[in-house]
Amino acid sequence: MKIFNKSKILAFVTAISLSSGAYAQTPLSGFMQGKNGGNVAFSANHENYGEVYLVPEKIDGVPIFNSVTVNSFNIYASYGFSDKLDVIVNLPFIRTAGSANQDVLNDLGFQNSREGAQDISAFLKYEFAKKGNLSLQGSFGISTPLGDYKVDEGLQSIIAIGNRATTFNAIALAHYKLANGFFVTGQAGYSLRSTEVPDAVLSQLKLGWAKKRFYADAYLANQTSTGGVDILRPGFTGFFPATQVNFTRIGANVYAPLDGNFGINAGGGTTIGGRNLGKANFFSFGFVYNFKYREY
């Protein structure tokens, strides 16, 4: 009998994929969990913005709400069915709050916050080729609303916790890692969305370093909608999920194990460009539990 315990920290790194902003990244990394490997992560995330990327220019102040704070708690799990097949599940609970004047809220019949379970997501990721330091992978995922949150409340929906759409995501990944721990991961994919929410092209580039006692990465993430309307422009009816939401975000994550099972992670980043969304800064902190198995 022997204890099966990965000697390196790589089993943890997928768990920090969502650590920097609810919409900054896909929940995927280039590292495979391995058969019977995996983890469960719990993270608290904070996001704030007081500027909004509108068309034709960025404006100071969020309409009605002045500034918006988004706090979320994520439950994330991954598991390796084999050395080549992983499953990833994520569930966020989100609270958005504005800083609107109470008299304004009373006049409009609005509230200053919204909260609840958002969308549960599940992904399958398969490594279909590996040669030397290069791994090629493909993933298919679905995300669907879990909570009964509202998106059709006019300008109140500026602080809605999601789009209330089911999405189908197909993503290709290329992951290159050297023996010294340096790695590069590229992702590109398409997100097909229900209702009036526009489809989107997703991409991400991540550079990092992963060794036994430490992990760090920096990333550039982008979403480009394939359609939609602009807020307060011709064609806008007050239904915010139908808007064209583009963004470019940069961020970084770090992770350190505490022992063979537990570790802590932190991350942060900012929005550097976008369309019909807030110019957000975000950070997070979380705990990761890594599975151990016995082989007989």
Question: Quick summary of this structure?
Answer:
This protein has one helix spanning 102-108; strands spanning 2-4, 38-49, 51-53, 58-60, 68-80, 85-98, 113-117, 119-131, 134-145, 167-177, 182-193, 200-211, 214-225, 246-257, 262-275, 277-278, 281-290, 293-295. With 296 residues, the chain is mainly beta. The chain starts with a strand and ends with a strand.
Entry keywords:
12-stranded antiparallel β-barrel, mainly beta, disordered N terminus, globular, 1 helix, 296 residues
Structural description of this entry:
- This protein is an all-beta fold.
- It has one helix and 18 strands.
- The chain has one helix spanning 102-108; strands at residues 2-4, 38-49, 51-53, 58-60, 68-80, 85-98, 113-117, 119-131, 134-145, 167-177, 182-193, 200-211, 214-225, 246-257, 262-275, 277-278, 281-290, 293-295.
- Strands 2-5-6-8-9-10-11-12-13-14-15-17 form a twelve-stranded antiparallel barrel.
- The longest helix has 7 residues, at 102-108.
- 40% of the residues are buried.
